[in-house]
Amino acid sequence: GMAVVTSGLRSVFGLAAVLLDEPCPVFAQSISDCRLLVIGRERIHSAIAEWPEVSAIMLRLLAADVHRLVHDLEACCLMTARQRLADFLVKQGRCRADASDRAVVVLPAAKALIASSLNISAETFSRELRELARRGLVEIERRTILIRSLDRLAAYSLEELGAQGAEAVAAQAS
Questions:
Q1: Do 147 and 153 form a contact (C-beta atoms < 8 A)?
Q2: How far does Cα 38 stand from its chain's mean position?
Q3: Which of 17, 94, 120, 146 could form a disulfide with 24 if both were Cys (CB 3.0 to 4.6 A apart)?
């Protein structure tokens, strides 16, 4: 199957199934040691009834999921593999960046799993990562990626998208 999302510390999943009150066919697998807290449907519903602020938290969590899914759909439909990879690295880098524009990203999972979540093959992931390195945007040391400039990497991704859009418009005009 395809990896749809990788979750990290303090992540929530399965919320839609609880709130919809119907089975949802999903599969989750830990790729590292973790602690998993399972809260049953009845406890969630009781908490919502007793504390209205819990509803607001649930809405924020669901809204974040919808936002991520819309972004992922747009990325799959409108971005190249290289743009999706650059976008992923920029997001990971922004979470870890210090005050400078540089960031170090340690890939949170195996390249094949990350590639799957970006809807590309592991081979394409590696090839595009090497191309970003060739262009001087990143340095690669196994699973550690040094992003020389988050702003430059983000701009590169947008430039590529702009160039594609211009090519599509030119193709339609002819």
A1: yes
A2: 24
A3: 17
Backbone angles phi, psi at 35, to 5 degrees: -110, 135
- What is the C-alpha separation between 132 and 147, in angstroms, rounded? 10
The three-state DSSP-derived secondary structure of 14-52 is CHHHHHHCCCCCCCCCCCCCCCCCCCCHHHHHHHHHHCH
Q: Kindly list the distances between the CA atom of residue 161 and the CA atoms of 67, 80, 84, 140, 172, in Å, as whole numbers in the listed order.
A: 20, 8, 10, 24, 17
Contact (Cβ atoms closer than 8 angstroms) between residue 108 and residue 115: no
For residue 25, give every residue at least 6 positions away whose Cβ sits within 8 Å of its Cβ, in sequence order, or none.
Answer: none
* Element housing 100 (H / E): none
Task: List per-residue pLDDT tens for the chain, 174 residues long.
Answer: 555 566 666 777 778 888 887 777 777 777 778 888 888 889 999 999 999 999 999 999 999 888 888 887 887 788 899 999 999 999 888 876 666 788 999 988 888 889 988 989 999 999 999 999 999 999 999 889 999 999 999 998 877 666 555 454 444 444
CA–CA distance, 85 with 133 (Å, rounded to integer): 12
